[in-house]
Amino acid sequence: MTHPPAPSNFSSLAQTGDWIRHEGGKQILSEVIIHDDENFERALKRFKKKCEKAGILSDLRKHRHYEKPSERRKRKLNTAMRKNRRTRHV
Fold first, then answer.
1. What sign does the CA torsion over 58, 59, 64, 68 have?
2. Mind listing the pLDDT tens digit for each residue in 16-29?
């Protein structure tokens, strides 16, 4: 079994710690450059924060399974009702 060739910029992406996220047909990169005087744990923490801010993990979880349009409407309605219930009591 042969694998498709890696993109030409794959090695540079893997080395710099980039993460590719597609949004509306364009690519968004979360990039962390490790400086000489910086330890790996600090750079990893910055990368995780940048990914969380970009919404990459939540997007991944959202698209893990197919959600029918009726299920999506039902979920959004339940979320709105919960939010409305919380704001009404305050």
1. positive
2. 444 455 556 666 67
